[in-house]
Amino acid sequence: MDQTVKFYQTGTFTVGNRLLSEENRSVQANMQRTNSLNSGHRACQGCGEALGARYAIDAAMNASNNQLIAANATGCLEVFSTPYPETSWQIPWIHSLFGNTAAVATGIAAALKVKGRRDVRVVAQGGDGGTTDIGFGCLSGMFERNDDVLYICYDNEAYMNTGVQRSSATPPAARTATTMPVGPEPGNVFGQGKSVPLIAMAHGIPYVATATVADLRDLEAKVKHAMSLNGARYIHIFVPCPLGWGAASHDTIRLARLARESGLFPVFEAEFGEVKSVSKIRHRVPVEEYLKPQRRFAHLFGKNPAFETIARIQATADRNIRKFGLLEEAVS
Amino acid sequence: MMKKPFAITLDVGSSLANHTGSWRTERPVYLDRLPPCNNACPAGEDIQGWLFHAESGDYEQSWRSLVENNPLPAVMGRVCYHPCEGACNRGQIDSPVGINSVERFLGDEAIKRGWKFEPPAKQSGKQVLVVGAGPSGLSAAYQLARMGHKVTIHEAGPLSGGMMRFGIPKYRLPRDVLDAEVQRIVELGVTIKYDTKVTDILESMKTGKFDAAFLAVGAHIGKRTYIPAGDSAKILDAVSVLRSMEGEDQPMLGRRVIVYGGGNTALDVARTAKRLGATEAIIVYRRNRERMPAHDFEVEEALQEGVMIKWLSTIKQAGDSSIMVEKMALDDKGWPQPTGEFETLEADSVVLALGQDVDLSLLDAVPGLEIKDGVVQVSKNMMTSHAGIFAGGDMVPSERTVTVAIGHGKKAARNIDAWLRGASHEPAPKHEVAGFDKLNPWYYSDAPKTVRPVLDIIRRQSTFEEVVGGLDETNALYEARRCLSCGNCFECDNCYGVCPDNAVIKLGPGKRFEFNYDYCKGCGICVSECPCGAIKMVPEQI
User: Fold this and answer.
1) The 3-state secondary structure of B227-249, one letter per residue
2) Taking every annotated instance into account, which residue ranges of this chain make up the domain Thiamine pyrophosphate enzyme TPP-binding (chain A) (predicted)?
3) What residues in A contact B445, CB-CB < 8 Å?
4) Looking at the partner chain, which of A9, A29, A50 has a beta carbon nearest the beta carbon of B493?
5) Could you report the per-residue pLDDT of B288-319, keeping only the tens digit for each?
6) Are the beta carbons of A86 and B17 separated by less than 8 Å?
7) Is pLDDT above 70 for A331?
8) Inter-chain contact A9–B483, Cβ cutoff 8 Å?
9) What are phi and psi of B107, to 5 degrees?
10) Residue B459 belongs to what domain range?
11) Domain A32-324 has CATH 3.30.750.24
């Protein structure tokens, strides 16, 4: 039973690793990475969306041999990257309306098909507002028709660029400009929730995945796999927003990590409506650890902590853990 | 100018024109912090530095980096009490990196592959006398020779190694290992004159035309204590017992051996007695285990081998076949006080392991030296109050371990070199220590420590074979890669990856990174996500 132990210090937890062979290294570790979203953009300090977009689009560029066109919904990502006449994008990029980016991408894919350019691939990208609310109809249509587009949603859980208004991705109890922490149920209400990844799965499309900016290697692997497929594909990336969440700019990745480790944001991938794999929790944490560093949840703590509300949020996390099997099986 | 598409009046520009660095109030800067292991090493090894090379499997480079500070890695990999491991940040994640075992692996590898020291680029023409071929003397001689000085060691005994040979049993340090590492120092150009006892240091320096001297004669006179004893009682001292193990005639200790004392030497003697065939080896110590100066793992190994320890006891009287001990009780301050309760133990011999004194007779003719508590006082630069005479190791005030001695040798060599050039040696200021709070341990893979194989108990009771085995290549590599590289960039690319503004420039393998302050907004993600704490934020000067 001699087994060679392979151990690489930080393994694939870090962005790069000099101990791994070249082909096992990440796109982001490469000195020649595309930097699809270049320096000089006007995103806030520590923007999770800017980071997530570069991670995803660089990986898509790498996987498509740099033959990529992106359609981009209105939202932070569009506003901070392209104030006229400047652009941070180093790829062919088109700004759609707030709600129709899936349809615009469908059009580009159709045009490419007519032109016989099978080598050129199409992505559509938007924030949670443009995806889960305003663009939802177009997105569902794109799924249902199985158009050859990879749609990427950068989820920062509210309309950030217009001043932090609630979206259907805003979590319960969170403070936004439109869900103030006043009254008997302060912050956002406990609704039914709206998981667009699960809705996408219900369309039975070839590929659906979730990811966070805290796990680059996982994110890159998912984009790469999605790019190897044709038809409608959907990746939902969790991107903390320091400004809208009232968090320190240096905590962006930490918060994404805590969201995953608490079970509040399940990370998984699915093919044709079936879950194929989940990222297991490595060091489980209670939801308080994730909530506390964010001022949008500050009203839950302080002198009179809202134990009941915190318990309800914890119950959501526990349900995710059960539903997706996020914990390692105990070794007996 | 108007050849533009409909409704477009300006040329498309790049956002690179927008220097977002102007938003910044704090800036990240790269720095090297002092890893706790390096900080704890009495020999001043750059442990993180040599592990870095071992991690990529470049063992020769790793060894060369190691021997910058310590010429005896195969010895140290066996006998060092590794305070580095006690300080290791990895201990707060799972267990400390087995630094000592990797050091031993590198030392053994160097012997196996015949790696040699690089000779000095040029000779200085200066001559230095080193007195004593123990760890401190050898370390100083090696460092001085590398600086181009001509070094001669005068050794009173017939063999090199000092306490490494005459104080440390073979089961902890095989002699061929010691010989091989000393031989490598000799091949660098150091002359060792054996059976040459220095009786008057000034005289020896004059006759040999030496420009400076480093004294490292060690402490090898066993301390005695008064025990009322019968004529036929057999009372020996630990140093003589261990020394005679090196000769033809092994000491006659009998079947029931009592060792008096609580230091590492007491354990060495008791374990040696077991190996010589004693059925009982009992250590009598006046305090309890918590207060015992011996290292815990040595106590553990001794107990496993069947050594017994009589805690809280002092010897009142020794007869020819028994001794009388008195039970002690610790007072409020932890000092043993007699209780008046007595007990008789059978004993064929009693070995005293109560510490050692220094033979300072070679200094008798040197005027104005300061001697306190039986050891020579030296200044910060290791020089005695007589110009040009330096001293180190067990003969100066310090903790008496091989590692400390090697550190003294290196430090003295640097000061001697400076003194010979009429300069003074200013050690570089120490970096701030990279404490655990500076790390982001999330990024390190989970992995417990590789434990060195320990010889079966039965085998080691009766033989002088080495007790602790070595790592082989695969597990040495594994062990090295458990290093967290505290405080020093190991090029994991995290800063390069996690910057939302592409404001980190990757310079390529071995060259690390630099910040592009034109675009860095000062968010601090790189600092938070640097696994090893090699970046910090500093306020912008406005």
Assistant:
1) CCECCCCCEEEHHHHHHHCCCCC
2) 74-237
3) 7-11, 13
4) A29
5) 998 898 988 889 999 999 999 999 999 999 88
6) yes
7) no
8) yes
9) -60, -45
10) 38-115+444-480
11) no
